[in-house]
Amino acid sequence: MATPQTVAVIPARYASSRFPGKPLALIAGRPMIRRVVEQVRACPAVDEVIVATDDERIVRAVEAFGGTAVMTRADHATGTDRIAEAVQGSRADLVLNVQGDEPLMPPEVLTALIQHMRRTGVEMGTAAVPFVRTGRDPSDPNAVKVVVDADSRALYFSRSLIPHCRQGGTAVEPLLHWGLYAYRRDFLQRFVAWPRGRLEGCEMLEQLRALEHGARIYVLQTEAVSVGVDVPADVALVERLLREQGKA
Known about the structure:
Elements: E1 6-12, E2 26-27, E3 30-31, H1 32-41, E4 48-53, H2 56-64, E5 69-71, H3 79-86, E6 94-98, H4 107-120, E7 124-130, E8 145-148, E9 154-158, E10 175-184, H5 185-193, H6 198-203, H7 207-212, E11 217-221, H8 234-245
Parallel strand pairs: 1-4, 1-6, 4-5, 7-11
Antiparallel strand pairs: 2-3, 6-10, 7-10, 8-9, 8-10
């Protein structure tokens, strides 16, 4: 029997309406995509790291620091579609999707999610952190919220503040969803074959496609914090945090 393998794929597009060329933006002297790759490589549960892109400039930058990059089609509707193309031919049975704008992604969170997937056989997993740990505004529609059941399985993801606590109700700590996913490879192939769902089209959140088709998504709840880079101003914040961690 073949040894189980985990491949981490980092989707990285050059085009961005808010931050063109974001994967190549320098963070303390290194391209952001290199920072992300190094964080993922630090996870002992990951066997292979691949950057999936549609731009030769990103391929050259990744290969320059010894990374692996593959060119994918430019017309993919979602990052998950790009990842599914990138792992064609791979023997890995578990696929990790790590966003290319998360240069501080904690390796221990990746390890915990992979271990849960291996231990339980769940078909899809992700992660979330209490908003109080992040300093972000729960009412911000760019900060995706998730509510979970008693077994930490996702009930719904939304850009709106959920759950809504009615006056006199018992307060529930809102959870900030991270753009981190793990899929069993056979499930990933089913996922990208499904048509876009109504809720997915409304919220513009592709993970809702899985819920609309009856899939269960495990949500790893963590206290760790990662800062994503959405706009150029975020670079200074990440550089400050790297200096505080002694990694600049």
